[in-house]
Design a protein that fits this description.
The chain is α+β, with helices and mostly antiparallel strands. Helix content is about 30%, strand content about 15%. The protein has two domains: about 70 residues, no CATH class; about 240 residues, Cysteine proteinases (Cathepsin B, Chain A, Alpha-Beta Complex), CATH 3.90.70. The protein is globular and about 65 Å long.
Length: about 325
């Protein structure tokens, strides 16, 4: 059997060329695909051992994605920046919201749904949703969820859409844990007590905790209060329809969530009370096939999901806890 030798330049903390010897062209193609994926997502590893471990993870996840997509499911998966992750060690990863996951939430009680609500809503078409952002390797999803709701409320009130500073919240909110996690109500409380928040352009995002450098004279928006949304999915629907983009906490611990690409996401193994990720509901609707969904903005960049968004199941017993702890600020 012929043997193939592939040599790739390893873009790590050291310079060098690594050669892989393979026994067939199939393995050679896998290595070539892995290399291209690393270049696309700018992945660097500090040692040859780490490189080997992450390559094995990548192979496992790629096979999992391909197998899943061959089945008849409501949604599809795709290779993205998480393809080298070991999801058995999810809680050790830097973007995990530990502080939020430590809380035990209660199952919400459904309220009555009024008949005067629109069948679908998409706040992106009203100029109150900023472009998709990327939290990077920092458990700051809570800050992104909070700024998303604040941006929406401020834009609805003033007619001006301004991107607010997540790093200001991460660095300066001493009641939460920065890149270690937090929750959206805590972010709202910080901004209220600080008499406002600065724009992103003045306090740009850095995916790590730094010394607080907030300057109150640079604040561009203030908020007087915040509200937790009650009433389960019906209550959340009312809030999205009448208030605007709403911050929510969800269980995003399943590997298929991380690889989501398109369709309406549903996972019966999701928890409705143990939540570990903050996102933003910017709308809702129903597909042509009759599947109800929530339109959700994530903070994992535009290369994740459907250009940074995910359609999550609606009216399926509060799947992944999307209606367990919604909240929004008051201008």
């Amino acid at each position: 059997m012929n043997s193939f030798i592939l040599c790739f330049l390893i873009m790590n903390s050291y310079l060098g060329t690594t050669c892989y010897q393979t026994s067939n062209s199939t393995n050679a193609q896998k290595l070539y695909d892995f290399h291209n994926w690393r270049v696309t997502y700018n992945k660097t590893y500090t040692t040859e051992k780490n490189l080997t471990v992450y390559y094995r993870n990548w192979l496992y996840n790629r096979d999992y994605i391909n197998t899943y997509n061959q089945q008849e499911n409501e949604f599809k998966l795709g290779i993205n920046q998480f393809a080298d992750a070991d999801f058995k060690q999810l809680r050790q990863q830097s973007y995990y919201n530990r502080r939020l996951a430590e809380r035990k939430f209660l199952e919400p009680k459904e309220c009555e749904l009024g008949s005067d609500l629109p069948l679908s809503v998409d706040w992106r078409t009203h100029g109150v949703v900023t472009p998709v952002k990327n939290q990077g390797e920092c458990g700051s999803c809570w800050a992104f969820s909070a700024t998303g709701s604040m941006e929406g409320q401020h834009a609805r009130k003033t007619g001006k859409l301004i991107s607010f500073s997540e790093s200001q919240i991460v660095d300066c909110d001493t009641k939460d844990a920065g890149c270690g996690g937090g929750w959206m109500d805590g972010a709202f409380r910080y901004v209220i007590s600080n008499n406002g928040i600065e724009p992103e352009k003045n306090y740009p995002y850095v995916p790590q905790f730094e010394i607080c450098s907030a300057n109150k004279t640079e604040n561009v928006a203030t908020f007087s209060n915040y509200h937790d949304v009650k009433g389960g999915e019906n209550g959340l629907m009312k809030a999205v329809a009448t208030v605007g983009p709403i911050s929510v906490a969800i269980d995003a611990s399943q590997s298929d969530f991380h690889f989501y690409q398109s369709g309406v996401y549903y996972n019966p193994d999701c928890s409705t009370t143990i939540l570990d990720h903050g996102v933003l509901v910017v709308g809702y609707g129903t597909t042509v096939n009759g599947t109800d969904y929530w339109l959700v903005k994530n903070s994992w960049g535009e290369t994740w999901g459907n250009k940074g968004y995910i359609w999550m199941s609606r009216n399926k017993n509060n799947n992944c806890g999307i209606a367990t702890q919604p909240s929004y600020p008051v201008v």
